[in-house]
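Re: that chain you flagged

S.,

Sorry for the slow reply, it's been a week of failed gels. I finally had a moment to sit down with the sequence you sent. For the record, here it is as I used it:
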Amino acid sequence: MPADHTHSWTISVAGVDGADITHFIKKVQFKLHADTYANPTRTFEHPPFEVTESGWGEFEIQIKLFFHPESNEKPLTLFHYLKLHPYLGDEGAMELARSQREPVMSYIYEELVFNEPTEAMFDILTSNGSVRLPTKGTVKGRGEFVVETEALELDRLGEGLRIVHEQVRSVREKLAQREKDVGEMRKALEKM
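Prediction finished late last night. Pasting the structure tokens below so you have them in one place:
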């Protein structure tokens, strides 16, 4: 590792719970920071689709997924911001993690949705298994993407929607009362 590099890091593209994604992904290309790395474009045609490097700063990495040619699907470009420092938790816990040089885990769950896929791509996707969310407890340290978390998020969204509807109802009632008050004031003014 060069002297000015303070961290080693790995970025990867993988299926949920280690599921095989090679039946629809032909290759993965990572574009690293061009001023820092002599070979910033790294392409992998076989798993693991990952880059391990070292560096000193955080930057955005472009990830391009290439699908099998027979699918007739265009490549998909994603972006991941490389994080080398902890950002979640209270300040004391983050400082302790920095001082003890604990690994920083930054997972991003990208769900690929093929709106009106080609017939070939549809066949590729449906004949070789299905994509799913990880189940609870299957991957340690990745609780943010489990099915239960998705259900909780839906519950929170439902509760938020209920609150918004209640607030709209309340404002409408207040508006109706104010309009009634204005009407009564107009009638009182007309009598004067």
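What I noticed first: The first helix runs from residue 91 to 99.

Talk soon,
D.
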